[in-house]
């Protein structure tokens, strides 16, 4: 449940933890971004050079913060130092699934967006028939990459992919709820449920997949999953803020895209939505408390949430 019992003067746990415990993980994040870009660029060459592949490549290569792949790697590192080598195919698969969701989200039948990641949306740059097939291409490519991972056992690969599949179904349910905008007696509960499905689920699956591939126990996997769902929720609340306070130079898309929807800003105001985002950051940190310093990279991601990071 979203909380309304916060004290008037809040203690910023994330700021304290950053100052006291966290290294600067900029180099590690850049390493993941480079590895993902290189892996995906090479992987596309294995498929027939068609307009569909071109549309898929356009939707994912050369841009994006890659937060979900970074979470896969950061979660895996808690249990294995060389997590990047082990989880890279799945990290790429998560980004492919995310790209597929963005192509669909931007369509005229949904948000009818013009820009994504600072360039025209895929449906504005390619023939409609190619765009219609691009998300299917991206999802099948994701499973191909992740299930072919030579660095993880077959059992771990299957379990990680089942998490991604569940997240995909949750995202569809969340998108349905987002399109319908049904009113409920408790609007905060409705909004949190929608955001958990539409945004939190893929973040949670990303973290859990990394944990599975690197040998976490079931109890550890669940804690990682819940913490990463919180990170996704924190991101989504700040995305609502971005929709009214930022524009293309900061976030790569037009502001006001959610004008026809009821968002956290409508319900709580800009400052209220920011405060809720901090609530979820703190909740993620609480769930990661027992993991020790190997979880500091994942903790740092929880504390970096802002509309600029979405």
Fold and architecture overview:
The protein is mainly alpha-helical and 310 residues long. It has one domain: Orthogonal Bundle (Farnesyl Diphosphate Synthase), CATH 1.10.600.10. The chain is 68% helix and 1% strand. It has helices spanning 13-21, 26-44, 51-60, 67-77, 83-105, 128-147, 154-180, 187-213, 218-245, 248-251, 264-287, 296-303, and strands at residues 115-116, 119-120.
H/E order of the elements? HHHHHEEHHHHHHH
Shape: globular
Major sheet: order of its strands?
Answer: 1-2
CATH class: Mainly Alpha
Terminal Cα separation, in Å?
Answer: 23 Å
Q: Return residue spans where pLDDT drops below 50 for at least 5 consecutive residues.
A: 1-11
Q: Which whole number gives the mean pLDDT?
A: 88
- The third-level CATH topology is Farnesyl Diphosphate Synthase
Q: Please count the beta strands (DSSP E, at least 2 residues each).
A: 2
Compact summary:
68% of the residues lie in helices and 1% in strands.
Features:
single chain; 1% strand; two-stranded antiparallel ribbon; disordered N terminus; mainly alpha; Farnesyl Diphosphate Synthase; 2 strands; 310 residues
Give me the secondary-structure topology.
Layout: H1 13-21, H2 26-44, H3 51-60, H4 67-77, H5 83-105, E1 115-116, E2 119-120, H6 128-147, H7 154-180, H8 187-213, H9 218-245, H10 248-251, H11 264-287, H12 296-303
Antiparallel strand pairs: 1-2
Helix pairs in contact: 1-12, 2-5, 3-6, 4-5, 4-8, 5-6, 5-7, 5-8, 7-8, 8-9, 9-11
